[in-house]
């Protein structure tokens, strides 16, 4: 196997690379990273490394984003991956050509289009780059300022403003706390079944979903209404693959990417795989597992099931998830169930599983995040063995 990695920027790190810029870059491409100033991880570093290379720096568990970016640089250096990376190369289109893939790529520096052929394709563009806005009646008539968390860099813009934050996922919770330090008043709107346990600052209140807007006011599902100078959307991101031709056989329906075998392999063209689609996971560990999963089949060590068998397996698993109440947009959400997914991949491909302690620590961290946003990053963890961790403060 001779790998080529196409990277549209000139740096390692993807979403972990901070830039002050919003909108587009020097080449007219959308800014990829959603990183903002002062970000610390919302997962402990102990679950964020690769199985063969851990994040060593710092005695704390929740580290600044620069630590993660440096870790990725060090990993790249250790395994001499820069020899494989073509920086400032933007993939324009990927098209199936008989038993190969034609990749059309723009060498941004030379402004030259190249046509390349490959046996296999791994799509690793992440899913925190294309903002997802909710459909709210009247949002286009609202006269106040509106922006998405993708374009958030710091809290200065919110000083002395009245702010409505829509969404209480990790970014919504985190940025609500940061913005409330400088804003006059903040409302956090969400559809979680109960009021969040976290004790926010005195100037934060919580509301249910927004029902509609007019030019000046926001109307909520509970019948209340209010006025805000800024509406801030922390509503997540779209799974977007603009470089895939329709011939690739992949489509996205409300963030459900299909048809994928084990959330990973393109069932229509099994020589294409998507790495990193599931979320609320130990990302680096899972990406490593998915890559090993693919390589087991692509190198001929194991044979993939037939198309019919893969579709049957996928439909059965997804129907079970939907029957348990998952929405289509949650098709790839793992969370508390991530361990079952890892084991399924490992047993299917006969490869080494992720250590159970990773899932246990990830789930503990997620619960702490929801219950005590203001202090959970003070936790310091240490992994004892493959199945156990301790909290040392």
UniProtKB/TrEMBL annotation:
SUPFAM superfamilies found in the cross-reference section: FAD/NAD(P)-binding domain
Domain of life according to the entry: Eukaryota
Keyword field contains NADP: yes
MF terms (GO), sorted A to Z: flavin adenine dinucleotide binding; N,N-dimethylaniline monooxygenase activity; NADP binding
Protein keywords: FAD, Flavoprotein, Monooxygenase, NADP, Oxidoreductase
This enzyme's EC code(s): 1.-.-.-
Cofactor: FAD
PANTHER family noted in UniProt: DIMETHYLANILINE MONOOXYGENASE
UniProt record similarity statement: Belongs to the FMO family.
Protein name from the UniProt record: Flavin-containing monooxygenase
Species: Glossina morsitans morsitans (Savannah tsetse fly)
């Amino acid at each position: 196997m001779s790998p080529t990695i196409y990277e549209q920027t000139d740096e390692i790190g993807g979403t972990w690379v901070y830039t002050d810029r919003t909108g587009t870059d020097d080449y007219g491409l959308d800014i990829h990273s959603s990183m903002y100033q002062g970000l610390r991880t919302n997962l402990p570093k102990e679950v964020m490394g690769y199985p063969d290379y851990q994040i060593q720096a710092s005695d704390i568990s929740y580290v600044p984003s620069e630590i993660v970016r440096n870790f990725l640089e060090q990993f790249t250096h250790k395994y001499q991956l820069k020899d494989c990376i073509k920086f400032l190369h933007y993939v324009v289109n990927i098209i199936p050509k008989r038993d190969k893939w034609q990749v059309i790529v723009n060498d941004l520096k030379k402004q030259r289009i190249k046509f390349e052929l490959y046996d296999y394709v791994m799509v690793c563009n992440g899913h925190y780059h294309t903002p997802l806005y909710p459909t709210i009646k009247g949002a286009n008539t609202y006269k106040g300022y509106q922006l998405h968390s993708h374009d958030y860099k710091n809290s200065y813009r919110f000083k002395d403003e009245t702010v409505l934050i829509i969404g209480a996922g990790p970014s919504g919770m985190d940025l609500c706390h940061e913005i409330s330090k400088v804003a006059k008043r903040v409302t956090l709107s969400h559809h979680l079944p109960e009021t969040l346990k976290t004790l926010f600052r005195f100037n934060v209140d919580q509301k249910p979903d927004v029902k509609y807007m007019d030019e000046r006011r926001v109307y909520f599902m509970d019948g209340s209404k209010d006025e805000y100078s800024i509406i801030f959307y922390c509503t997540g991101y779209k799974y977007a693959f603009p470089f895939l031709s329709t011939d690739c056989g992949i489509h996205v329906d409300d963030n459900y990417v299909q048809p994928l075998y084990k959330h990973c392999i393109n069932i229509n063209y099994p020589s294409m795989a998507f790495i990193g689609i599931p979320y609320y996971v130990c990302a680096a560990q899972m990406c490593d597992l998915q890559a090993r999963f693919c390589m087991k089949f692509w190198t001929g060590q194991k044979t993939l099931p037939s198309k019919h068998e893969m579709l049957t397996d996928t439909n059965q698993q997804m129907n079970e998830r939907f029957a348990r109440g998952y929405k289509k947009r949650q098709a790839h959400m793992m969370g508390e169930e991530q361990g079952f997914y890892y084991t399924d991949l490992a047993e299917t491909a006969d490869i080494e599983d992720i250590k159970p302690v990773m899932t246990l620590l990830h789930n503990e961290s997620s619960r702490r995040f929801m219950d005590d946003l203001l202090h959970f990053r003070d936790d310091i963890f240490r992994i004892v063995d493959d199945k156990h961790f301790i909290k040392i403060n």
